[in-house]
Amino acid sequence: MKEGKYMDSKTQIIEQYFKLSDLASNDEQALHEIIQLFSKRAVVKGTNGFIADNPTRVAEFFKNFFKDNQELRHLFHVVVDDGNYQAEWAVAGRKRSGRIFAFHGFDTYQFDQQNKISFLKVKLEK
């Protein structure tokens, strides 16, 4: 695994995704910006088996996620291995119900030629 101190544009996009994720529950603009990170043909696979495979479903996925999660704080680490982008993350948050939670997992990303996210798979560690 190769990790440099430099940050390529795809790594910066992933960092932006996590930074916006901490804001999007209470910030309509941040939510809009997250959705804009994804290509029109993006596929998002959520941890619950939900698959969003068109722009409307991708937008719905994120709107519902940030409506259900009222407050989020992510720590993350991006690893680039032979052109493959993965982020290990931990998140603490508060559900709309008030319940507090913490999860640890991995995201796998693919990008199109325009540096838009074309594929995102979210996996929780058990």
TrEMBL record:
Q: Which InterPro entries match?
A: NTF2-like_dom_sf (IPR032710)
Top-rank taxon: Bacteria
Q: What is this protein called?
A: SnoaL-like domain-containing protein
Q: Which organism is it from?
A: Paucilactobacillus hokkaidonensis
